Amino acid sequence: MHLSVRLASTLAVAAGCLAGASLYAQTPPPIRMGLWESTNTITMTGLQLPPDVIEKLKAMGRSIPGSTPQTMTAQSCYTPEEWQKSMADARRHRDEQCTQNNLSFTSSKMVFDESCTTSRGDTTTGHFEMYFDDAEHAHGSGHFTTTGGQGSQAGHPLNIDMTVKGHFVSADCGEVKPGSPKIINHQ
What we know:
This protein is of the alpha+beta class. The chain is built from 3 helices and 8 strands; from the N terminus they run αβαβαββββββ. It has one domain. 19% of the residues lie in helices and 44% in strands. A hairpin with a 3-residue loop joins β3 and β4.
């Protein structure tokens, strides 16, 4: 399994969900358009890494993936046009076949279940909930389980839990361009 691809995909889901990223929604979400800042925290359990990889990471002074929560704060520019584009492109560049079920999208929340399979045999299932507290604040959480089809993760579930908290910053996105989030902090 390509962990960085899966983690990046998970973070993309979280960022997209901040904007109410239902693949079926064709209108802007019930939030203000403009610059948003979101903090996403990912916790992974069940990651299978070969011992030599763990030793190399330790020798480089790097943390072992899955040993501590990973938090990323980013700024994103949401416009009605970017919203429509993100809906059209949501799955176009990924090596996955995904379906969403139990979709509920209202003015105050968005909930869905997702199931994905990659050409490498990885499978992912999960549930995500996003709450729009008001037009300028949102929060959510999700739980996803990925089972690798190949390599050291084959047959072993990787559990990914995430929380998302976001707030509107400004109607003017400044230097942050639609479709190009700016990473503020990653730890």
